[in-house]
Write a structure and sequence with these properties.
Shape: globular
Strand order of the largest sheet: 1-10-7-6-5-4-3-2
Oligomer: single chain
Low-confidence stretches: none
Mean pLDDT: 96
Strand content: 5-15%
Structural class: alpha/beta
Length: 294
């Protein structure tokens, strides 16, 4: 296994092998890390972790050389802690998030990526305060040490966390700062308006505002839309407006060598593209029209 580049993709988790199947899928792509959901991202139904073949999967993880501290879990999309005025949804979201943190701990993992939430016309300041209050309550009571990585968003609708300053405001308000960090998404920050082609400039700005020590994960996605489109539509590597060269520069930047890098690019004709994308990025070589031969 290539230990030098921490790169992988989203993988599925379904029966009968569940987490064991997730690990096997990651291995089949040539990954050195991976990301998964502990259940369907669109709803809160979750199988008990005791049924998910975690012990077998962890043994295979050990045998395969994966570093469990670099394996990523993504929280379900339905969680929205950015709007406390909808009290019912807010309480449900807090319960679901606390549950997800405990599930991450059951897997023996330590990082949960979370979309910060949407203020839904209540205003940015109210939304950020709602997120801060929810995180402080959850961190005080969930009984874990799992870290949340707030994902940088594209600025679609009333999304919060669409720029580094909003993310910083949340981090500043969280009491247990050792449990909060960031997941940087290359598609999202480009769609929000950042010139991602200047990788070190992006990292310098991130470090100045937030601090690179808070960067826990990177989603390395191309974008179907030009910069500042606020669309959030991922594209396969080299086929979008971010481009292969820029994404390759993120993957191989020495400042990011210890950060897990995760592909969330679209399937091609019903097939996962990750093995080919990982191979190209490991070799820093783009293959023209690679999707045609997938």
């Amino acid at each position: 296994m290539n230990k030098e580049i921490l790169i992988g993709s989203h993988v599925s988790m379904s029966g009968p092998e569940y987490y064991l199947g997730s690990v096997k899928e990651a291995i089949s792509y040539g990954s050195t890390t991976f990301m998964f959901y502990t259940g369907a991202p669109q709803n809160s139904f979750r199988k008990p972790t005791s049924e998910l073949r975690i012990a077998e999967a962890r043994e295979l993880i050990k045998q395969s050389g994966f570093d469990e501290s670099k394996i990523i879990v993504h929280a379900p999309y339905i969680i929205n802690i950015g709007n406390s005025q909808n009290s019912e949804l807010y309480e449900i979201s807090k319960r679901n998030l606390a549950q997800e943190l405990r599930r991450v701990k059951d897997f023996g993992l330590s990082i949960l990526v979370l979309h910060p939430g949407s203020h839904v016309k209540t205003g940015i300041e109210n939304g950020l305060n709602s997120i801060i209050n929810a995180l402080n309550e959850i961190f005080e009571n969930d009984g874990t040490d799992v870290k949340i990585a707030l994902e940088t968003m594209a600025g679609k609708g009333s999304e919060l966390g669409a720029n580094f300053n909003e993310i910083k405001s949340i981090i500043d308000g969280v009491n247990k700062k050792e449990r909060i960090g960031v997941c940087l998404d290359t598609c999202h920050i480009s769609d929000e308006g950042v010139d991602v082609s200047k990788v070190d400039d992006v990292l310098d700005e991130f470090d100045k505002i937030i601090g690179l020590d808070k960067l826990l994960c990177i989603h390395i996605n191309d974008s179907k839309n030009p910069r500042e489109s606020h669309k959030d539509r991922h594209e396969n590597i080299g086929y979008g407006y971010v481009g292969f060269e820029t994404i390759n520069n993120f993957v191989h930047n020495p400042r990011l060598s210890n950060i897990p890098k995760i592909l969330e690019t679209p399937y091609v004709n019903g097939k996962a593209p990750y093995k080919k994308e990982i191979e190209m990025l490991k070799n820093s070589t783009f293959i023209e029209n690679w999707r045609d031969n997938l």
